[in-house]
Amino acid sequence: MTVYLVGAGPGDPGLLTRRGAELLARADVVLYDRLVDPAVLSLAAPTAELVNVGKRPGGGAGGGARQEEINGLLVAHGRQGKTVVRLKGGDPFLFGRGGEEAEALTLAGVRWQVVPGVTSAFGVPAAAGIPVTHRGLSSSVTVVTGRVGDPNADSAVDWDALARAGGTLVVLMGMQSRAEIADALQRAGKPGHTPCAVIAQGATPAQAVVRTTLDALAAVDFLSPAVIVIGPVAALGAGEALGPLHGLSVVVTRSGPRSGALTDALREAGASVVELPLTAPADPADGGVALRAEAARVGHYEWVVVTSANAVGAFMGALRDARALGATKVAAVGPATADALRAAGVEPDLIPSEHRAQGLVQTFPRHDASARNAHILFPAGDLAPSTIPAGLGEKGWVVTRVEAYRTVALPAPEPAIVARVAGADAVTFGAGSAVEAYGALVGPGGGPLPVPRLVVCIGPSTAARARALGLAGVVESTGVSPAEIVAALVADSSGLPADGS
Fold first, then answer.
1. Catalytic annotation, pick one of 12, 37, 55, 492
2. Is 33 a catalytic residue?
3. pLDDT per residue over 219-247, tens digit each?
4. CA 458: distance to chain centroid?
5. Strands, E, within 291-371: which ranges?
6. Which domains, ranges and CATH numbers included, belong to the chain?
7. Residue 492 annotated to the active site
């Protein structure tokens, strides 16, 4: 097997390469850096062993691992014939010690490959609207480490030469020594009024940019990681747009494909997303016997009504062939459910404009007493509310509800995820089962997990369950689509501080 040195990119999980995602999906072991976004780690195979070897400022790694220990882990796993991914922030070969790890693997006779990543030296300034080269301002760019040590050492940065070189200077890992860097460059003749930009948490929703000058660089007080850009181009890009949820941390409790769509929409709006799947679909209690029986006689029904992608998947799996629907019409509660039907080869006959169960009931036609067939099949989850059967029953229909899947709680999340959730500004719930699963979680201090100040619930029954459990700040989304959930967050987050404090 092979050890793959994979660059995770500068921060945004969407900047991981397709090749990197492919290798994560089939990795046996993933050794990852401290700053790798959890969303990237979620792409790893469920059976993969995840090992945190990220070094912390001041030395040591997650548990104190030194570089030699990391090299040893890579060699040991590689020799066991496993597919090993060494997931490194940015690009593996730019100040990432990827070269040292490759040398150690070569000496040990272990095969390795590099999967390049977007380096933070270029990706972070670009995300802030700063081009590192620009016609008329800069025709070259130099990337240096910001560690200022013995000027006579072999690996020392020649700040005098850099001050004379012109062009753009990008400094990585330079926040602790920013005052010394600014002093060294000015002593070598670089003007104090040279534009500078300091970009913290670059290429993430928490990105923050400070524009300053070389003589005032020391006063910029950002925590690492931060990228420092020095040169005329640092004054460009000052009008970069920030999303309406910029600076806010939002917990997403959905799972499966719907989680990805909502996560993408939130990130587009500028939010920092914490993915916390709390429940998952499981087979019905009877193993699907009743569902298969009703699917076999689907022609007996005038309508099939589905209110989730999970229900669509279970029902269409039992049906096996979409042509079996024949003249039976199909109603979907909203766009996500409709898309799941289309993916299975079925175009829904009815989608309400209000994308929730009550909206479907209101839009659904009354049964014509002169018509013979009044039967509706409702394949649903075990915890789905009775809104559909009760509402359609009042309109003269005979609704047969059959269990398509069960909702089960997932194991407790990792402590690192719990800590991020505890500091979030908002949380979204798609069902009462997710609310209850959240309430059962234990927080960092051993007590109940703190609830963010804004709780966005999809549908009245979910909101009612949240209030019944004592959650404050509960608001109800007008629909189930990612855009409608984001709109609810935007409308109700005006009172939250944009820095998440």
1. 55
2. yes
3. 998 887 899 999 999 999 865 567 888 88
4. 20
5. 303-306, 329-332
6. 3-118 (3.40.1010.10), 122-235 (3.30.950.10), 249-278+410-492 (3.40.50.10090), 283-407 (3.40.50.10090)
7. no
